[in-house]
Amino acid sequence: MKKIPYPLIKIAVIAALIAPIAACQQTPSEQVVSQSVQQMENPLLAPWTGPYGGLPAFDKMALADVKPALEAGMARNLAELDSIANNPAPPTFENTIVAYERAGKDLDRVFTYYGILRSNLSSPEFRAIQKEMAPKLSAFNSKIVQNDKLFARIKAVYESDDLKTLRDDQQRLAYLIYDSFASNGATLSEQAKARYAAINLELSKLHTQFANNVLADEENYVLFLQADQLGGLPDSLVKAAAQAAKERGQEGKYAITNTRSSMDPFLTFSTERGLREKVWRTYYSRGDNGDAHDNNAIIAEILKLRHERVNLLGYDNYAQWRLSNRMAKHPENALQLMESVWPAAIARVSEEVQDMQAIADSEGANIRIQPWDYRFYAEKVRKAKYDLDSNEVKQYLQLDKLRDAMFYVAGRLFNFDFSPVPAGTVPVFHADVQVFEVKDKNSGELIGLWYLDPFARQGKRSGAWANSYRSFTSFDGQQSVLSSNNSNFVKAAPGEAVLISWDDATTFFHEFGHALHALSSKVAYPTLNSGVRDYTEFQSQLLERWLLTDEVINNYLVHHQTGQPIPAELVAKIKQAATFNEGFKTTEYLASALIDLKLHMVDPTDIDPDAFERDTLTAMGMPKEVVMRHRTPQFGHVFSGEGYSAGYYGYMWAEVLTSDAAQAFAEAPGGFYDQAMADKLVKHLFSVRNAQDPADAYRAFRGRDAKVDALMQDRGFMVGKSVKM
Questions:
Q1: Which residues contact 563 (CB under 8 A, 6 or more apart)?
Q2: Residue 87, domain member (yes or no)
């Protein structure tokens, strides 16, 4: 049986920015000498200074500094690792594993800026730099993994009897680092290593090209409307669309951008069916337009290269390799979970379509429900069945108030206090970014800072995500956390409240859960802050449950004009409709997760991604009225890097844990704010990060393994056969 490989934190950071690994030319010493002057002058490499233990100099970022900073940072890191590898003293935990953890701080700082420029402030100029640097970063990463002397010392420590005398977290650290090297080709023959590196070099280019193609389609396809084309759209969306058009030099028109935050409400409310179809087709055709930005050939090549690479490691397919370090362990286990839910999901879609078709028929629409009709008629069904108008609910969902609600929850569960940092105190990379100080409520001890970048703009990738600019560690003195959340809410007109949908509010809480996971860390070493993909979504999904608690509803869901709290009868309708449209939501997600996993379980020789997607969905019985949440040509989770490749199922795996854990809170004497449960939550599920095996951590919290029954009940489905977790 193969050992469980966990991603090495340094390797994982680079992979998230570009892709995996390949081979360098210049020696570290040559690069250090040639770039030492640049390193001293380059602000991206400079140690962080100022309050809060030092802060990123976001106000000093310049594109001209990116390439030299990366090159100098890589050279310094390689020199540090060579020093460890060539240490004449016998390898020990301190002089090898701990020394490895200390290495690369200069480059880590550069990656913080690089990640911002990639995700939050992308531009054609940056993309050119990214394209040039992707293979160099890949080569650098391979240079680390294929450093035989370094790996030999790591292996010696990992296999030493002395390791057994160390703390559990130190043993786990050595294990994670060893397996990160071993599972990324460190044990291969020289010939196989060379091919492994060449594959990763090519993958780094393809992942970057894929991501840039999707971003290009998002930026290039904008629908500009006239005033007579706004039928059905709520006032908040009209104002936001007017502002978006103005920002694009089209004042007097209304812009529907090619992002989910713009597409989703338009399809929900627009009475212009032809325009709904146009917006739908434009959005779901990203990366699939048969032009210079088409991603199908890129996907086929990525799949072939991934397959070849894991064959070198002895795996039959990519999914086997990818899941070997996850809670699921084997792709068949993930398939079993998803396929146990799929029949109930598509059966619910059939019921939902019948309800929608009945309304369309009663109105004399003379149509058959199509994908671009689903959201529109689902909204009508919601009103008819539950007398629930999602736009009415939206009037009580103010972005700032929801942020305050999240702070309240963090105070009750985690004992955190959030307070705004005065403008100008902390450098930010955009005027929209807000910064908050996080302290322990009782002791006043500084935990760190939380950055919020809430609004959509050109050059910012779509979706919502969390980052940590600095993670907690204590092995070299306690280090405060710099955590961030990033969203794509549509900015309101000046002076107007930013109103968001219930789904967006849920996502806001979800991403804040990731931030709390980072802020709660109590681990000693950087690598122990890394995550296991089908577990790390659990903590964030769990935090979503507090949005519907009475304390949040009664205090933070207030009307943006009157200030009146949301009426009790409207709250009752929201709760009654909690599983409404669950067929659509579950099916669009599961379709994406199943296609992702199945793509990585087959021999990809001569694969046609579009045909595979279409034929596999047909064989699965995919309802024609629903499309994958992320179609293959735009599936950035899977093809712009390897973070979620063969792992998108992880959201559902984690949700089994979420539903089971939420049930524990619901049954506690104090409900969702029960202090004893909150203490267990922080101790076992948030603070330990990856210092403990996730399965063991969950058992310590719950007293047993999770059961799938709670998930099925939460989604309003019949409970099927038990699935082992």
A1: none
A2: yes
Residues 109 and 156 occupy one common structural domain: yes
Tokens at residue 623, please? 């309802």
- Name the residue range of residue 234's domain: 221-284
Q: Write down the pTM of the prediction.
A: 0.82
pLDDT, tens only, 484-525: 999 999 898 889 999 999 999 999 999 999 999 999 999 999
> Which residues are identified as catalytic?
511
CB of 45 closer than 8 Å to CB of 39: yes
What are φ and ψ of residue 522, in 5° steps?
Answer: -130, 25
Q: What residues are paired with 449 via a beta bridge?
A: 437, 482
Question: Are 616 and 598 a contacting pair, CB within 8 Å?
Answer: yes
Q: How far apart are CA 180 and CA 304, in angstroms?
A: 22
DSSP β-ladder status, 416-420 and 465-470? unpaired
Supply the DSSP string of 438-478, one letter for each residue.
Answer: EEETTT--EEEEEEEEEE--TTSPSS-EEEEEE----BTB-
> Are 129 and 258 in a shared domain?
no
Q: In what order do the strands lie in the sheet with 446-455?
A: 416-420, 434-440, 446-455, 481-489, 465-470
Residues 95 and 228 in one domain: no
Tokens 């058959």, residue located:
368
Residue 11 has pLDDT above 90, yes or no: no
Over pLDDT 90: what percentage of the chain? 86
Structure tokens at 266: 């338009």
pLDDT for 605 equals: 96
Q: Half-sphere exposure of 706 toward its Cβ, with a 13 Å CA cutoff? A: 28
Question: What's residue 420's pLDDT?
Answer: 98
Contacts of 358 (CB under 8 A, 6+ apart): none
Which of 23-32, 81-90, 496-505, 665-674 bottoms out in mean pLDDT, i.e. has the lowest?
23-32
Residues 270 and 136 in one domain: no
